[in-house]
Design brief:
The chain is α/β, with parallel strands linked by helices. It contains 24 helices and 13 strands. Helix 18 (435-448) packs parallel to helix 19 (465-479). The chain is globular.
Length: 642
């Protein structure tokens, strides 16, 4: 019934394998390694590959992986036990081989596997037959619990009462209860000094004039015009004038010329500043400052531990000894980690990740993956449990943010240019995340690197979308003028107004870019919520018809759980409405408003973990040069910073 069973090391060495059918085991196992083990998605133990269901188990002490595969239509309840028994049997033999040094790249494990598999199947068959036989009530746990409880209950030990007598007694007890409640009510009223009907008399009692005077609303004050500081009066000119020449320039009308000149200088400084690869968000200096802060905190703790006690040499000696013993108490050399050791620490880590804007489901899955990776691992001599868990979580986060494939747009643009085709980038996302603004930033970066860009206005739904792109196009064209006046402009807007089919506009713009010799086509689409089916269907049509080279999802860094929902539903809509066996999904992520979140960078983890695609660009401001690439180390340091 099993199709495959493979035992291999995390380094890729296959020690033993079983092949139950004419099936190539390399493809499903490699898919499991790439999609689950390398991507830190080990929270679950199941993985689906085509018609196979793969389950795996990690042995962190010997760095082994046990994988079993069977058809999806089968429901085998003994797989978990089979993996545990096989792990236990192989560990003993593998330990003996390592101790004796007789490893020859071959393990004769067929007999053990067949015996273990037969034992698991027989036990599962017996268990299934036992489940079909109905148990009597005196054989259930409920019966035993009720029997034990009845021994301590004094009411059960009394003699049984006839039904007629019980009814009469119930009526008497109900009447007595009513009398008791009435007496209690009268007693409480007597304590407060109330008599029957006193509440009603208080309600009908006329209000005194003194009470009405107290509750009267005072007269409203007369409104006074507020005087604002630096409100633009003539007396504020000296305070508001920050120019070098002061009042003289203001009177001569030279401030406008100076402002325009400074703006021109700023534009000249921006042009050419983004040649080559983008700078990464964050820097080594920030991480170095964090390390210095941690060292200072540790030094502070050491000084407090050494000098915090008062009273002579004896007390200081006790403080030093206590600090040393507490230091060694935190170490757990040679300890084998269990789930009970790791769970409390990971629970705190999970709360910390959620506070840093990581989606709740993603934080839960990430901590489960770290627990699976650490369970059974043997610590070193000077390794603490907390430091080991934190180091493993840091490694997992780095693995998630490190892209499986590198998106090098400049290289891809050059390759498309050699083939005579423009490189097409499509931007999609929800409303108000900054698609048009960050499209203009990417256009500025491409223009700085010497490429001609065509901006395709495919947002025919939102009023003002075409005018916004036209404003950006004019500004970028003014900053990046062609070398010769006879040369064509370096950036052009392609638009056909509103209410048209976005897919046909994108197709016409790509055709025009190829004829006019443009290097890159940037396709701007309408913002749409992930639940808007007509607009999602239109987006899927645009991507299917035009087949862009890169599909970028534009998302905010401010969102938490919403980021996961957006990405899942965008990918699902693209897959459902494309009607293809291998649909085109999101290729990368553009993370906007990254400068507004301080150290709450959890949205980057949520988006990358959900799609498995890299974060290509990061928007960090409102100018054309505020575009960066992601620095995984800086993001992880900010995420784990207390």
């Amino acid at each position: 019934m099993l199709d495959l069973f493979v035992i291999f090391s995390k380094g890729g060495i296959v020690f033993w394998c079983f092949q139950g059918a004419n099936l190539a085991i390399a493809q499903p196992v490699n898919a499991l390694i790439k999609s689950v083990i390398l991507q830190e998605r080990g929270g679950g133990s199941a993985f689906n590959y085509e018609k196979l269901n793969l389950q795996y188990k990690l042995d962190n002490e010997f760095e082994l992986v046990f994988v079993v595969g069977y058809q999806n239509i089968l429901q085998l309840s003994y797989i978990d036990r089979l993996l545990e028994d096989m792990q236990r049997a192989f560990r003993e033999r593998f330990r003996a081989v390592l101790e004796n040094g007789t490893y020859n790249h071959r393990f004769d494990f067929d007999d053990v596997f067949r015996a273990t598999l037969k034992q698991c199947e027989d036990d599962d068959r017996e268990r299934a037959q036992q489940k079909k036989q109905m148990r009597k009530f005196d054989q259930t746990e409920k019966y035993t619990k009720s029997k034990e409880g009845s021994k301590n209950d004094p009411l059960v030990n009394k003699q049984a009462v006839k039904p007629q007598e019980t009814k009469a007694e119930d009526a008497v007890t109900n009447g007595e209860d009513k009398l008791l409640k009435g007496r209690e009510k009268l007693a409480t009223m007597a304590k407060r000094g109330d008599r029957p009907g006193a509440r009603q008399r208080r309600q009908n009692k006329p209000v005194k004039e003194s009470e009405t005077k107290k509750t009267t609303i005072p007269d409203k004050r007369l409104k006074v015009a507020r005087v604002w500081d630096n409100g633009g009066r003539t007396s504020d000119i000296a305070t508001l004038d920050h120019s070098s020449d002061g009042q003289e320039q203001y009177m001569n009308g030279e401030t406008q010329e100076k402002a325009s000149g400074s703006a021109g200088n700023d534009a000249d400084g921006m042009v050419g500043s983004m040649k080559g690869e983008l700078q990464s968000v964050g820097s080594v200096e920030s991480s170095g400052e964090e390390e210095e802060e941690e060292e200072e905190e540790e030094d502070g703790e050491e000084t407090v531990g050494a000098t915090g006690t008062k009273g002579g040499a004896d007390s200081s000696g006790k403080g030093i000894a206590g600090g040393i013993f507490s230091f060694f108490k935190g170490l757990a050399g040679g300890k084998t980690l269990t789930k009970q050791d790791v769970d409390p620490i990971l629970e705190k880590m999970k709360e910390h990740l959620i506070a840093k804007n990581v989606a709740t489901d993603i934080a839960d899955q990430l901590c489960s993956s770290v627990a699976t990776k650490l369970e059974g691992k043997v610590l070193g001599t000077f390794s603490g449990v907390t430091s080991t868990v934190k180091a493993s979580l840091h490694e997992s986060l780095m693995q998630i943010l490190s892209p499986r494939r590198r998106v090098d747009i400049l290289r891809d643009v050059m390759e498309s240019k050699k083939k005579g085709n423009p490189y097409v980038i499509t931007f999609c996302g929800v409303n108000g995340v900054g698609k048009s603004t960050n499209l203009a930033k990417i256009c500025f970066w491409l223009l700085d690197n010497g490429h001609r860009v065509l901006v395709s206005a495919c947002d025919t739904f939102r009023a003002g979308a075409v005018e916004q792109l036209r404003t950006h196009q004019r500004s970028l064209a003014a900053m990046h003028k062609p070398e010769n006046e006879e040369d064509p402009p370096r950036v052009v807007l392609y638009e056909k107004g509103y209410g048209k089919d976005a897919a046909s506009i994108a197709m016409d713009s790509v055709r025009y870019a190829k004829e006019a010799g443009f290097d890159v086509v940037l396709v701007d689409t309408a913002g749409r919520m992930q639940d808007n089916e007509p607009l999602m269907r239109a987006l899927a049509k645009l991507i299917k018809v035009n087949a862009p080279d890169l599909v970028l999802f534009v998302g905010e860094a401010l969102v938490g759980n919403e980021a996961v929902d957006q990405l899942k539903k965008f990918n699902r809509a693209l897959a459902d409405h494309s009607h293809e066996q291998n649909p085109r999904l999101i290729d990368g992520i553009l993370l906007t408003k990254f400068d507004t979140i301080d150290d709450k960078v959890g949205a980057a983890i949520s988006m990358t973990y959900t799609t498995g695609q890299p974060i290509v660009f990061v928007g960090t401001g409102q100018t054309y040069t505020d575009l960066r690439s992601l620095n995984p180390k800086a993001v992880v340091n900010a995420l784990l910073k207390a």
